[in-house]
Amino acid sequence: MKFDRKPIPVTDAVAKVMEYERFGGWEEVAIDQCENRILAEGITASHPIPPFNKSPYDGFALKAEDTAEAGSDKPVTFRVIEQVGAGHQSSRAIEHGEAVRIMTGAEIPEGADCVAMFEICQTYEEDSMDYMTIKRQMEKGQNIIEKGSETSLGDVLVNKGTRINPGVKALLATFGYPTVKVGKKPVIGLFATGTELLDVDEELQPGKIRNSNAYMIAAQIERAGGHVKYYGKLEDDFDTCYQAVSRAFSEVDALITTGGVSVGDFDLMPDIYDKLGAEVLFNKIAMRPGSVTTVAEKDGKLLFGLSGNPSACYVGFELYAYPVIQRFAGVEKPYHRKIDAVLGKDFPKPNPFTRFVRGFIHYEDGKVLVSPAGMDKSAVVTTLANTDALIMLPGGTRGFKAGDAVQAILLEDPSGQAAFK
Amino acid sequence: MKFDRKPIPVTDAVAKVMEYERFGGWEEVAIDQCENRILAEGITASHPIPPFNKSPYDGFALKAEDTAEAGSDKPVTFRVIEQVGAGHQSSRAIEHGEAVRIMTGAEIPEGADCVAMFEICQTYEEDSMDYMTIKRQMEKGQNIIEKGSETSLGDVLVNKGTRINPGVKALLATFGYPTVKVGKKPVIGLFATGTELLDVDEELQPGKIRNSNAYMIAAQIERAGGHVKYYGKLEDDFDTCYQAVSRAFSEVDALITTGGVSVGDFDLMPDIYDKLGAEVLFNKIAMRPGSVTTVAEKDGKLLFGLSGNPSACYVGFELYAYPVIQRFAGVEKPYHRKIDAVLGKDFPKPNPFTRFVRGFIHYEDGKVLVSPAGMDKSAVVTTLANTDALIMLPGGTRGFKAGDAVQAILLEDPSGQAAFK
């Protein structure tokens, strides 16, 4: 048994893990399969937007100077030479005294320099010819959306490393990407350990509980942008365990185990790391819950030994595995967004170590509050259902009061941040 | 042409649409396929948590009263009768003077009422028997997590209508749900209209633009929890259009079209609604962008006629289609969360109508700010990439200044709210 572990600060632990972060390379996916994936290349405007001068309204395109004499009692008359719908072009340039009936989104005919809206024009027909009169003066450029006024050719619109949301997808479509290069999802292997664990479809038995960590972590891996490969439960026998872990490790981009990293007699993971020849980056962190979280590295690949305790497991994943998965997938800002918030409820329990309390975000009159999601007993699984943030309470001798300034780590906000600070 | 449309307020429009909201029924999915789906039934504790008295530490289980005489110079000795790991049970109840070596998570043996941590105990062996001495007095109940202390049998833990996050998944596993009843995803049909639209893989042509709305809306439908059925572009010909819309409408739970709802000569949707026998709930809303957003209903099924303008289309979807999709899928709080926030940047342009400005949320010193994501020209597609909120600016004669209190609609926050207000 190894009682002599030295706890390291959370920021040091994160830094040690991130020494081994790497980008997993890209793959090409169809535009209709790319939601929430990460752009492996930025999007540059391959044409101006709009690509031509266009009309924002239904109306008549004409030369503004032709309306110079118009007034409320002096209508000016134009001959309507044709009609242009969106997607079409006029057949020729317009001359003085001519107008083109134009639809929203259609290209402004050559020679025209303004659009008079339908509503201010009168139309009539005479000798099978269409005419239009207007009693107002128009200005050059009026009601014309100029070519390139929204985006110029060559503008960088979205950087690589950006998550694809509906807006980014609209850009991809606009600039003609039927397929798009996105970061590959890392394959994350997952083992649960613990003789006490039953499968989800087994009846409860004396002394045993169902394995909830594996399903929880699998969901966290998916949420982080990884692909889960679940290897099931590790047996108690060391050799069997070692073989299973060793084989799995060769098949994945990173491996997560839950349980077995403590100092108990049945905690096999430390010896497995030894035999694998993996370097243990740390095996004790100055935090609660999750102090026994262990991370090891072999050939640049990471093994995350998360605690068997549900809360500790949850927190350990979000702090140490999440940013590695994000970076692998190509995210530019791999860390959870951390914000200054107002504590919404007393948390009277002092703690010598940094504590990550499961909480939820709420808003009030322009303020952002974070409140504990429930009692923070380290084994309480029920609280996690309401959790969308971790309240980061620094260690010390005092508790915290509602209204105190605290930091909150946002677990469901995809914006992220570039550094863990 | 119908110029005589009467604009209705946004809240009225939402209310009219939601008269036709309905739950789409449930289906059973495997626990490892249920991420982000909506619980069709609440989760009730089918056993207490923990299901038995258990040890939070590695240590020795014993009777506290047996340590009554212990002191720093008065060690009390126990005979260690066996060892119990997590998932196992002791073979018999302990008697006075006896202790059981117990591991974290293991069931407390009958007869024991406290656990002394390893670190405060001395062990030795004599005549092939194991002994343990302790110099401290223990209290009854010390270091025991009592059966049911986290959750009692029958506790309602999560309500139906809740989105399944990693924490909810842990609960499902804990209480033995290999499959789970979730709300069905609505099938949302999608058409784009507009002769000016090119497909994403076509070369740009004079007067034309690529169809970005369809891809954007498809992504919005997926984000809202719907399943997209894309029917492609509608032709210009009325009869062909009518046939296509009519057939599609019979195959989906709701139908979305983009474009064709304006008052232009080529806007066919109003006549299609007529011929379908659909009742138009409204065709003009007192809002910008998106004033021409039209919603019609037939046999309790909805047709959303969104504007062809990208921003108007985006906003129209999030305000009117999103809550319908959420409710169909079983979400209890179907509306986007709307919060009081602080405007982060001037928005000087006054507007007579309620304006929904695309923006993004940021945080500063416990305050929640929302800033415009870019210029809010109604056709600017590039801004949408940075958008995760809509800033709701009431109509009036003045602009808005940084620091003003405004409302923000959160587009990527899954919490939701029960009413649109």
From TrEMBL, chains A, B:
Gene3D superfamilies to which the protein is assigned, alphabetical: MoaB/Mog-like domain (3.40.980.10), MoeA, C-terminal, domain IV (2.40.340.10), Molybdopterin biosynthesis moea protein, domain 2 (3.90.105.10), Molybdopterin biosynthesis moea protein, domain 3 (2.170.190.11)
Residues covered by the MoaB/Mog domain: 189-327
GO molecular function: metal ion binding; molybdopterin molybdotransferase activity
EC number in record: 2.10.1.1
Reported cofactor(s): Mg(2+)
Annotated keywords: Magnesium, Metal-binding, Molybdenum, Molybdenum cofactor biosynthesis, Transferase
Catalysed reactions listed for this entry: adenylyl-molybdopterin + molybdate = Mo-molybdopterin + AMP + H(+)
Pathway: Cofactor biosynthesis; molybdopterin biosynthesis
GO CC aspect terms: cytosol
Gene Ontology process terms (BP): Mo-molybdopterin cofactor biosynthetic process
Summary of the function given for this chain in its UniProt record: Catalyzes the insertion of molybdate into adenylated molybdopterin with the concomitant release of AMP.
Similarity annotation: Belongs to the MoeA family.
Protein name, per record: Molybdopterin molybdenumtransferase
